[in-house]
Design goal:
The complex is a heterotrimer. By secondary structure, chain A is an alpha+beta fold. Chain A has 14 helices and 14 strands. The chains are: A alpha+beta, B alpha/beta, C alpha/beta.
Chain lengths: 450, 314, 138
């Protein structure tokens, strides 16, 4: 019986998880497990609740991306009640989603992930964090804090509550945008667009070139990908579109969101509360073996960048072309999540500017009246961490009788397990390891921004 | 001297931690000058079992102040909370999950066994899946607020808590003084027009927007409860307001009680029903009144519905 | 040993509390299971008090007020009646059987009615078993 190394808790991620690395008698890696520790029961306790209240309950699945759950739930309840929001209602929701993506990406890259790169993966744990960045790079840190705060305040101005929002409502949005607000938000979105371009340049200089070797190897695995693309031209979409499931050989199946259960199944392992979605429609079963994975696809930024044909905004499209020129399509290296996250940051800023330039966003027709009824609705948006699926069935009083949720992060639980296995196996040999090395194993998880 | 601080999260969503980051300009000096974080899983890499992962004893460092978010739902949450009580001189329950159970305590209204099984038997799970039980922390019999398990020195509810109040509490600790916190109801901080009692006979669901003119400020809008919508302002603790407005009201959306009851041991559902009944409103018109306890289902507030016996069913 | 329920009785100072006194001096028997809490008026029994009693282990709660129309504070007992509807309606929500709660009216000269009410709720609750018995079982 060999030893077990525990990385507990996994830190600088959003959530509760630990890694157990089991060594054999020679001190080599025999097995690894990423244990997801939290179990809360949202699918169960929404039962019986009035459907229109669900978008303000499920936000608590995640305090970092509450907007995504809020909007996916709103879309699902719209569908269950058979109500179509007016154009401005959809626009306001999408603008909020974009703002939320902006702050989320800044938070993840600079507050959570960057310490590994700016201060180095082997830096002591007491300084390898955002406080360490403040000391090492005070100007950068001040700017990052300010930009993230700006995004949060834009949400607050438009929607009252930025964390655990309430402004999305069945049938649309709860308040219109005033012209003065539009102009102010547009100015601020332009500021964030400038910052997003700076952020990618900064990362190309200090991260992606300096850590080329780490990026090409750490936790690298070969999988398929899932994302959302425009129904007409296959470009990157976040608020609405068609689902696209791509195999590692780059062949694709597209499907409408309400058919998700035909394509995606969920596997349960006894050692993790996190369910593991897999591509059921590939009909190859489920296996986490990094050498011969079965049914495994990934979500989140790398996946979206891989599955889309193009990006509809110019700056992000230029970056996409440069990225594909270097890494191909689909790109498989796990740490490229960071790179694609910053490309997507540029896209969401550009898209926010684009929408805020439209005059119809200030239309006061923002909500269609809804009537409770028996029905079923599937709502899908792209959350920062992946394709987020909410599926509700209602009774004649409009209360929930059945719910099914596939949360962005969970698509990546299987792949994260594989990346951890890969990273640990290549790094730990003959029982020799240190704290910095274990941090590198964690970096393979952090790339997925779970 | 910087105050040694521990941040931990239990049955939580990390919204409280994001609220800390939303403190704004004061955040950088707070995190780097006034406080010294010695353990905070969301921001730094201190580990329970040593940095090499080979320790045998669960360890959180000693600190002057500990902030804990989330309720207590598993044996691991309990272990972390007990350790924090042991190691922190001042223990602060941060957010409504920690103070009253919060949204995840809605699970307390469900049959536990059936509930957990249901989560792993959905439309998409493989046939025959069961509740994981290897190396994952076992769930407790229900979701508890932190003060049901250990003594708590200071309660800072909110879902999420107000960044300004978090800053106030932390600075009060740094400056060794009592924090100034609100103690009234949301209505006391709400500027809408209230015309009086007895206007509402039936409580409406929020299926259409409130009546207001887009360009009018909030203080020109009629009280949402008086417009006939369920609004839990009267039975909810104040504290959410930013810029002088309760946050949901700022979005023209009624309050759902996310700061918990006005008195810490109050019962939001009972108080709301009592208020409606004494106002002459038909309290039976409220659909799913149990969800009025959606933020305060710990402390025994929410229980599984009693199954009627064969005799009662007739 | 058989189950002996604990019953909390909120008795109005002006009617039922006096009636209980009278029952005592008249050597009338009522079940020892009943613990009396004197209140100035049945109208001051907030629903929270009833739930508090049950959550702290009372197996049954009875509120006794003056006959409608005879309240010492004009309409306190009408308030009690309105609140009583809320209580009855909500008990199930909190996991309690509605039969664990009762409201009844009597005057200070009706100790027999008091004994009957006390005996009635005690026997009913005795048959139901302990409060939250299901929680304890599992």
């Amino acid at each position: 019986m060999g030893t077990v190394i525990n990385i507990a808790p996994i830190t600088r991620i959003e959530g509760h998880a630990k890694i157990a690395i089991h060594l054999d008698d020679q001190g080599n890696v025999r097995d690894t497990f990423l244990h997801i520790q939290s179990l809360r029961g949202f699918e169960k306790f929404v039962e019986g609740r009035p459907a229109e209240e669900i978008p303000r309950i499920v936000t608590r699945i995640c305090g970092i991306c509450p907007w995504m759950h809020h909007l996916a739930a709103n879309k699902a309840v719209d569908a269950a009640f058979g109500v179509t929001p007016p154009p401005a209602g959809h626009l306001l929701r999408e603008i909020c989603q974009l703002f939320a993506h902006i702050t989320d990406k800044i938070l993840h890259f600079f507050f959570l992930a960057a310490p590994d790169f700016i201060l180095g993966p082997d830096a002591d744990y007491s300084v390898r964090n955002v406080m360490g960045i403040v000391k090492a790079e005070p100007e950068l840190a001040a700017r990052v804090v300010k930009m993230r705060q700006l995004g949060q305040m834009m949400l607050e101005r438009l929607a009252g509550k930025a964390i655990h929002p309430v402004a999305g409502v069945v049938g649309g949005f709860s308040r219109p945008m005033l012209e003065a607000e539009r102009q102010e938000l547009l100015r601020d979105a332009e500021t964030l667009l400038d910052f997003s371009c700076y952020a990618l340049d900064f990362a190309k200089d200090t991260v992606f070139t300096r850590y080329k070797d780490v990026i090409s190897e750490l936790g690298a695995i070969t999988t398929g990908f899932l994302g959302t693309v425009d129904r007409d031209d296959g470009s990157l979409r976040l608020y609405d579109g068609r689902q696209r499931l791509m195999k590692a050989d780059s062949s694709c199946i597209d499907f409408e969101g309400d058919r998700y259960a035909d394509h995606i199944g969920e596997h349960v392992e006894p050692w993790s509360y996190g369910k593991m979605p897999y591509a059921k429609s590939w009909q190859e079963g489920f296996s986490l073996d990094p050498a011969a994975p079965a049914g495994i696809y990934r979500s989140n930024t790398l996946a979206r960048i891989n599955v889309c044909e193009k990006i509809s905004t110019p700056k992000a499209q230029a970056e996409l072309e440069e990225f594909r020129g270097v890494f191909g399509r689909p790109a498989q290296q796990t740490l490229l999540y960071h790179y694609t996250r910053l490309i997507e940051l540029i896209y969401v800023c550009e898209r926010a500017v684009e929408l805020l330039q439209r005059e119809d966003v200030t239309d006061t027709r923002i909500r269609a009246a809804a009537e409770p009824r028996a029905g079923r609705g599937v709502g899908i948006v792209e959350a920062p961490r992946g394709t987020l699926i909410h599926d509700y069935t209602t009774d004649s009083n409009g209360c929930i009788t059945k719910a099914n949720l596939i949360v962005g992060t969970t698509h990546n639980i299987g792949p994260m397990n594989m990346s951890v296995r890969r990273a640990a196996t290549s790094l730990i040999k003959g029982g020799v390891y240190d704290a910095g090395l274990l941090n590198k194993v964690e970096m393979a998880v952090r790339a997925y921004d779970p | 001297m910087a105050v040694r601080t521990v941040l931990e999260w239990l049955n939580s969503c990390s919204g409280c931690e994001i609220a800390i980051l939303n403190i704004g300009e004061a955040l950088v000096p707070l995190l780097t000058r006034h406080l010294e974080l010695v353990h905070a899983p969301i921001l730094m890499d201190h580990k329970y079992l040593g940095q090499r992962g080979d320790g045998t004893e669960f360890n959180i460092p000693e600190a002057e102040v500990g902030l804990v978010s989330g309720g207590v739902a598993t044996v691991e949450h309990l272990q972390v909370l007990l350790q924090m009580r042991e190691k922190c001189r001042i223990l602060i329950a941060l957010g409504t999950c920690a103070t009253h159970g919060g949204i995840p305590a809605l699970m307390n209204g469900q049959d536990r066994k059936e509930g957990w099984e249901g989560v792993f038997q959905t439309r998409t799970t493989d046939p025959g899946c069961s509740v994981p039980d290897v190396e994952v922390p076992a769930p407790l019999d229900r979701v508890y607020a932190c003060d049901e398990k250990v003594e708590i020195d200071l309660f800072l509810p909110g879902c999420p808590p107000n960044p300004a109040l978090i800053a106030e509490v932390l600075m009060a600790v740094v400056e060794d003084r009592d924090p100034v916190l609100p103690h009234k109801s949301v209505c006391d901080t709400c500027p809408v027009i209230r015309e009086g009692k007895g206007a509402v006979s039936v409580v409406r669901r929020f299926l259409v927007n409130a009546e207001f003119l887009a360009e009018d400020p909030i203080d020109r809008m009629r009280c949402l409860l008086e417009q006939g919508f369920m609004c839990m302002g009267p039975v909810t603790a104040a504290g959410c307001a930013g810029g002088g407005l309760p946050r949901c009201i700022a979005a023209r959306v009624p309050c759902r009680g996310c700061f918990g009851p006005v008195r810490r041991d109050g019962n939001q559902m009972l108080d709301m029903m009592n208020a409606l009944a004494s106002n002459g409103s038909d309290f039976k018109s409220v659909v799913d009144r149990r969800s009025l306890l959606r933020f305060s289902g710990a402390h025994g507030g929410l229980r599984p519905l009693r199954r009627k016996s064969a005799a009662e069913r007739g | 040993m058989g189950f002996e329920p604990k019953i909390i009785a909120f008795c109005c100072n002006w009617c039922s509390y006096a009636a209980a006194d009278l029952a005592g001096t008249a050597r009338m028997q009522y079940p020892h299971n009943v613990r009396i809490i004197r209140v100035m008026c049945s109208g001051m029994v907030h629903p929270e008090l009833v739930l508090d009693a049950l959550s702290h282990g009372a197996d049954g709660v009875i509120v006794l007020g003056c006959h409608l129309g005879e309240c010492h504070y004009q309409d306190g007992n009408r308030k009690a009646l309105a609140r009583s509807e809320v209580i009855t309606e909500l008990l199930e929500d909190f996991g309690y059987e509605t039969e664990r709660y009762e409201i009844s009216w009597l005057s200070s000269s009706e100790p027999d009615r008091l004994v009957k009410a006390f005996t009635g709720i005690t026997e009913r609750v005795r048959k139901m078993g302990p409060v939250n018995a299901r929680d304890l079982a599992g």
